[in-house]
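anyone seen this seq b4? input:
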Amino acid sequence: MEGKSRRRAPGMRPQQRREMIVRTALPLVAEHGTAVTTGQIARAAGIGEATIFRVFADKDELLDACVAEALRPDHVLAEIEAIPLDQPLPARLAEASAAIDAYLARMGMVIGALHATGRRGRGMPGPGDPGGGMHGAGGNGAGGNRAGGESAGAAPDRGAAMDRTRDAIAELFEPERDRLRLPVDQIASLFMGLAFTRARPPGGPSAGPGTSEPSMEEYLDVFLHGALKEGTAE
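predicted toks r here
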């Protein structure tokens, strides 16, 4: 298998080779941080180490590309957009929450490992910034774009990513538009706030002694139906 990969890799276009190397490097970076070697990455990719340096100037540039890939929200947006709208709304939102949780976990592993091994700056969010490339302000607000807009190594526009995420989530509420107390885009923004609030970096604050973290179902129940029991007097 390694021999096949070595014969195939030179036939790739440079961008394809670059993307393949980044995909292979990501789990190794999450495990080893800056201590990962280009030799380890080359062996995992089934290519010669020199092949890496045909598309990356050095290891720092490769790590930058890994950070950019970890921050890209394209995969989670595609998962949210694929959620069937004929499911009950709580099921739709549970799937969206799970997709966002998985994105934040993957991103947190890469960013956390790099921070833990001494890498700072270079456009990286801090380990306490749970939203990464999806959560934040700024950008040109290019909402409505679909997945696949950035290439490996290009840092995502955080404002545009936020708009794209809100638009994808807003679609999940469309079947219930006439029953919502607020416009769809406002409800989607509120749900995004809930989703990111639930995310905590490893080692972050817990719910406290004697308490347990609410489940996703409990979060969604309160979000959809409020904190007060039915029939409770104001």
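The chain has ten helices and no strands. Residues 89-116 form the longest helix (28 residues). kinda curious what u guys think
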